Amino acid sequence: MPSRLDNARRDFLKISAMGFSAAALAPLATRMFAQEAKPKHDLSNVKRGTLLGAGQQVNIQTGDKRWVLSIVDLDAEALAPRLVVMDFQGHGFAPDPRDPNKMVIFEKHGPGCCEVDLAEGKVTRSMPPVKGAKFYGHGAYSPDGAELYATESIIDEAYRGIISIRDGKTFELKGEFPTFGAAPHDCTLIDEGKTMVVTNGGGKLDGPKPCVTYVNVPKRELIEKLEFENENINAGHLIVTRKGDLLCSNARREGLPEDALGGMSVRVKGGKLTTFTKPEDVYKRMVGETLSLAFNEETRIVAATNPYGNIVTFWNIDTGELKRKIEVQNPRGIVLTLDNTYFVLSYQKDPVVALVDAKTCEPVKGSKFANAPISGSHMFIHAMPRLA
Hints:
The chain is mainly β. Among the domains are: 1-33; 87-227, YVTN repeat-like/Quinoprotein amine dehydrogenase (Methylamine Dehydrogenase, Chain H), CATH 2.130.10.10. 7% of the residues lie in helices and 43% in strands. The chain contains 3 helices and 27 strands. It has helices at residues 4-17, 22-32, 280-283; strands spanning 50-58, 65-73, 82-86, 90-95, 102-110, 113-117, 122-126, 133-141, 147-154, 160-167, 173-182, 184-190, 195-200, 211-216, 221-227, 238-240, 246-250, 263-267, 274-275, 293-296, 301-306, 311-316, 322-327, 334-336, 342-347, 352-357, 379-382. The strands form 6 sheets. Strands 4, 5, 6, 7, 8, 9, 10 and 11 form an 8-stranded antiparallel beta sheet that branches. A 4-stranded antiparallel beta sheet has the order 3-2-1-27, with no helix packed on it. Strands 12-13-14-15 form a 4-stranded antiparallel beta sheet, with no helix packed on it. The longest helix is centred in the first third of the chain and has 14 residues, at 4-17.
């Protein structure tokens, strides 16, 4: 018995034979063959994902410099980056949940923020910070994409922290709510978008204390504020795991010498916020700042980079045990591939990128590539349709 699709093809061919133009038949053809069309965003062949990283590119002949975003398909046979020229050094990434080809990128401590079309490889639009404020590096979309949030600081008010709220489509400013701290940096949404977790750096030593705050987004009310036992470290980047554990990178407070210690603090859900300080010889290498974090949900291992200490460390967050350390020059960004197979690490003054086995935490021989100028503080692994 003929199927509905067989009948549709027969009817379409019959009408075509009657002399209708292709333009006139197009709407009919679209309806008839809609069930054969590919998904709008086909992710079926995405395994490791697409690596995004910001940095600076230098023209060898002229010495001219420019800020760029590198886009690297990690599932491709040849890891060749596509570059997007930007007006600022990119820092944090906010993927648009409605369109995997759209990404918003923020500047750290500045006015820069833009949307990038990753498929087209170009900046599509920019948006300014709130009047009297500057962006502080990170942002996030609401789960439905209706709203875009960003960490910002009011410059003339001791860097009072706000989360700006913009329309997710038009970027029109809709309002703001407090971070309940100063100099906010990183943020993430949990509880289906009802709670925002924010790191507040606090600024100088005589300023407000650094803290991590949990904020009720609909009510714009403080739920919880976490401060560190050590007043000489601030709150930098964060991860909230699927189980609700909090991972936070620490840097030295503003005003302290460059060799002052940073670190990493963890609160396993239901426990106490604790800064990892053992083994002591490794902790003393975590000078200046702990920059990037990446967490493997399967092994419960968090990876952390320390560019001043030239060390990458891997810790079990449940026991606080150091699983492994890797010594490389100037490690900066670290992320986990979508399939949880590899950590991807950027390092060196002349930046290179390499893979680290996610289970053994051992560098993968022969995985290094140096054709992507990724020197920024972060990288991002993104699930986007692969280009032909």
